[in-house]
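Example 5.3 — Phosphate/phosphite/phosphonate ABC transporter substrate-binding protein
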Amino acid sequence: MAPRHGRNKMMALASVVLCCLLSAPASADWREDLGTFRIGIAMRNGESYPPGRFEEFRKAVSETLAMPVEIFQARDALALIDAQASSRIEYSVLSAMGYATAYELCQCIEPIAAPVSTSGASGIRSILLADKARAARTVDLGKVTIAAGPAGALGGDLLPTAGFFWRGKALAESGLDIVMTPGITETLEMLVDGRVAAAFLWEYVRPGAATSFGGGPKARLAEMSDAQYGVLWRSRPVRFGPHAIRRDLPSEVKTALRRMLLSLDEDRPLAHDAISPLLGGGFEAAAHDDYRTVLGLVPAVVEGGGD
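Solution (predicted structure tokens):
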């Protein structure tokens, strides 16, 4: 009969070997099951990006995961959301509302990281900006015309519709004189030439930071007019749209991709500029709770027939 301590060592060794046998194939199985890791990106205005536009980013992901990677260009945001919700892609670059809508459809994705601007802003919030000479206080809004829009835009429409109240009533029921514009340029032009005295715009923000961030519509307005404008209302902040991944993928995949994104601007600047050319400040970890503000907007948008 073998000594007890000998049997214990043999059992411990067998356990280690069994764990290795069980874990090693499991680690490889997800690669075999997927075959190719697919990244979804929405076309801009229905036009596909030129060949090679995302090649550096594709290579970065392929090397990180040690497997083939393809870029799928969806014809628009809705097609991208559908592809993610139906698991035809594993990874997607989404807007904040795109993430909220996809999550509402399937609860099958989670954010791993989101971009930041070069100044450190991590999102936006809607603001009501007013000409101080015509509407210095919120009570003055009942006497002037206010610009909003474009329809379906987060800062100019959705956030004000959900979060702005005047005399206890939501924007749609407030009785205020609202004119919808087709775009931010038209909104600014109407504010400058006096056709409206106030407008729902947006500004860059970093929740919890005391820093004031430049850029955005307010900076454009300052270049167009010498008038004095004041902020009469601000919405809750919304994080920039995330890079999101299927929730059912192994945690090692999520960890590896998150780590890659957080160092992408330093380690692979060409890949970073390919996938985040406008903000340019790298990536920070993102979580589902960062998008609670827009998650609350989805039911209202769906019921109202919004985009």
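Remark. The two ends are 75 Å apart (CA to CA).
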